[in-house]
Specification:
Mean pLDDT: 88
Oligomer: single chain
Distance between the termini: 60 Å
Number of domains: 2
Largest sheet: 7 strands, mixed
Strand content: 5-15%
Number of strands: 13
Number of helices: 29
Radius of gyration: 29 Å
Helix content: 55-70%
Low-confidence stretches: 1-19, 699-715
Structural class: alpha/beta
Shape: elongated
Length: about 725
């Protein structure tokens, strides 16, 4: 979000085509917008939809910038691009640079070391106005779903605006000789961008939310208002009054009624955007009794004046403040931090914003302002780039036994693993030889082409053949990311046994015949159903000698019933439904030997973060086994259904836990996030996986933990 509408030297809004007077209603709108955003981020439930303040600012910025450009055209007959970008550099970059560098420094001292590298990357993206695309990519990347919010992620809106203003002045230069042509071009841009927003909100919500192509129409609405300022100034006073109050009410209704589950932006963005447009349009005609009676009061104007700085500072304060103070985030803490960030905005307004913006030497020539902007951006990029090569120090303990070597050499791998789990559960620090390291930017993940591990929107897959490609027998590994993380172990087992392995996995897509609500896409996960049908069709066509089915036991945002309604998740009502849908999947593969590889144990949180936060007592990151097994009732129902259908069941929990589940076993980091296993760990326990899949239990004897519960097909 950007709250960077240009101002004159006095701090007032600049002249707009058809209106040279100061607009206190716009200053007040800024105050409304930033306050809504801050209250939403602080956790005020009544204003959960306060994110619409972003849209308010987009409209305001489009209006004021376009007005400035039109005024310049009117005075000089042209738009000086150099001066335009120099003004923006002097207005935006000084305080943004201070905020970014202060945030990077605070992250070094107060946030877990695991986060520092990513934050420096965020600083680089924000320096070159690409933060929105970084966040959009992460939003549709399942493997990035557990990442903590970046203290710099709020700069995505600055990126959106600057990308828009790379194009908009050029369009004005091309069309400025014909106002009709300008309106036509701008209207086309608004229509196309709005259509893209509506379409992409329903298909890839993160790209719609952060994309400049889906937000450009909001700035375009403001630009159209500036182009039509002269006409709007002739509206009747009564219309102006009604329009202003109606518009302000629309913004507030959106802030109060919208939630995180609202499909946004799309059609939902029309309410705050058109509401903001109505207030701005109404203000073209001076009229008593309008919304300006509230928006124009002194406190609102003062907050509006500080809105850019307050927005810049409030999010880092909320993200880093609790850690710096040594307290847990809470509403009262967040409100205090929000107030403190307003004080920072006041300080930087007088010490940074105004001195740079009003400096006559810096404003004298365009190249001077551009040079200052380039210097500030380069300094930020240099510091972030160098800082990202280093991470805060972490205390380690003595080296631990090599997990892979110990299991491989053991006569009874499970017994030796249990000993190592027990020893690791009592360790005070991470071992000095820990692999992979907790600060590694991209923890090793299963090496597999993207066409074989599909993200949310993908449904088509590649051949995906591994193991021994020339093997005479074929096995399939199918499921979600909790099947995918077992790939190294299953692949090694297949190679050892001379089996051909086909791996088909899709993130967040479970094997039971369910339609779930996807919280990332904010809609039913239809792609999962389509992909699953294709996978089952391929299996029925190939008739392999074994199919390993594995997925987590959670239902994401809820399961849909036959009527298309989400089933309540309270109690165990949905457990029976979940088990029944598993039975349907079993029946679809009837006649094909199957193995149900149950879900892994879940740690208590994001493991690398927990470990570095508790580096001197890593036992705080252990989790009792009873708590680590998710949905135990559902899990038992599914296992019973599998056994009844003659399907082998493999429980991997004994490979991870005794009475407790430590996040480090031997020298190996078990999880790289809040549930997914590292490649190093799954490779280490490959001998146990091989035994579980290919060694049948003796008839009449109970199966050992972590082994098959029914004879299967060996080599």
């Amino acid at each position: 979000m950007l709250i960077n509408s240009p101002r004159s030297d006095s701090g007032a809004a600049p002249p707009v085509a058809g209106h040279s007077r100061f607009r206190p209603d716009i200053e007040g709108l800024r105050a409304v917008a930033v306050t809504l955003v801050v209250l939403s981020h602080a956790g005020i439930g009544r204003f959960e939809g306060g994110y619409v303040g972003v849209d308010v600012f987009f409209v305001i910025s489009g209006f004021l910038i376009t007005g400035l450009l039109l005024a310049e055209q009117g005075r000089t007959g042209r738009v000086a691009m150099g001066r335009f970008y120099a003004r923006r550099a002097l207005r935006l970059l000084p305080v943004a640079t201070v905020m970014v560098l202060a945030t990077v420094a605070a992250a070094w001292f107060f946030l877990p070391a695991t986060r520092f590298h990513d934050i420096t990357v965020d600083a680089l993206y924000s320096t070159f106005y690409g933060m929105n695309w970084r966040l959009a990519g992460q939003g549709v990347d399942y493997l990035a779903a557990t990442a903590e919010p970046s203290p710099l992620q709020h700069l995505w809106s600055l990126a959106v605006e600057e990308q828009f203003y790379l194009v908009w002045p050029l369009l004005m230069i091309i069309t400025f000789r014909s106002r009709r042509l300008l309106v036509a071009g701008l209207s086309t841009l608004v229509a196309v961008s709005l259509a893209l927003s509506v379409w992409q909100t329903g298909t890839a919500a993160p790209w719609a939310y952060f994309g400049s192509h889906t937000r450009a129409w909001e700035l375009g609405v403001g630009a159209l208002l500036a182009v039509g300022a002269t006409v709007l100034a002739r509206q009747p006073q009564a219309v102006s009054v009604v329009l202003s109050w109606t518009g302000l009410a629309a913004v507030m209704v959106a802030a109060v009624l919208y939630t995180e589950e609202t499909s946004f932006p799309g059609y939902a963005a029309l309410l705050p955007v058109l509401g903001t447009g109505a207030v701005i349009a109404a203000g073209m005609r001076e009229a008593r009794g309008g919304a300006v009676t509230i928006l124009g009061i002194w406190p609102m104007r003062q907050i509006g004046k500080l809105s850019y700085g307050w927005y810049l500072w409030h999010w880092p304060a909320l993200m880093i403040g609790p850690a710096a103070l040594g307290v847990e985030p809470a509403l009262t803490v967040n409100l205090a931090l929000a107030a403190g960030s307003l004080l920072l905005a006041l300080i930087t307004y007088h010490l940074v914003e105004n001195p740079f913006r009003n400096s006559k030497p810096l404003r004298a020539k365009a190249r001077t302002g551009l040079a200052v902007g380039l210097a500030l951006s380069s300094a930020t990029a240099l510091i972030a780039g160098l800082g990202g090569r280093h991470t805060p120090p972490i205390p380690y303990g003595p080296a631990a036994p090599g997990l892979a070597a110990e299991i491989s050499a053991a006569a009874d791998p499970q017994a030796r693993l249990t000993q190592l789990i027990t020893a690791s559960a009592t360790a005070a620090r991470m071992p000095a030889n820990l692999y992979p390291t907790v600060v590694q930017p991209n923890p090793p993940r299963a090496p597999m082409p993207d066409g074989c591990r599909l993200n949310y929107a993908d449904v088509d897959f590649e051949p995906c053949v591994y193991g021994d490609p020339a093997g005479k027998r074929t096995m399939f590994l199918i499921g979600d990311s909790h099947a995918h993380h077992w790939f190294p172990a299953v692949d090694k087992a297949a190679r050892n046994r001379g089996w051909r392995l086909v791996v088909l996995t899709k993130f967040s897509c479970q094997i039971p015949q369910v339609l779930v609500y996807n919280t990332a896409l904010k809609r039913p996960y239809n792609e999962c159903v389509e992909w699953r049908d294709k996978v089952f069709a391929r299996i029925r066509q190939e008739r392999p000698q074994m199919v390993v089915l594995s997925s987590n036991d959670l239902d994401n945002g809820g399961v849909y019933d036959e009527a298309g309604q989400r089933i309540p998740t309270a109690g165990t009502q949905d457990d029976a439904i979940w088990a029944e849908r598993w039975k349907q999947s079993f029946r679809k593969l009837s006649g094909i030997p199957m193995v149900l590889l149950q879900d892994t144990a879940w740690p208590s949180g994001v493991v690398p973060t927990c470990l570095v936060t508790n580096a001197r007592e890593v036992g705080a990151c252990n989790r009792p086994r009873q708590q680590a097994v998710a949905e135990p009732h559902r899990r038992a129902l599914v296992a019973a259904a599998a056994r009844t259908a003659g399907i082998r069941v493999v429980d991997p929990v004994p490979w991870l836990c005794t009475d407790v589940c430590p996040p480090v076993i031997g020298d190996t980091l078990v999880y790289w996030d809040n549930s997914h296993l590292t490649v190093a760990y799954t490779e280490a326990v490959a001998p146990l996986m091989e035994r579980a899949l290919f060694t049948p239990a003796k008839p009449g004897t109970p199966a050992k933990p972590g082994t098959a519960t029914k004879p299967g097909t060996g080599k």
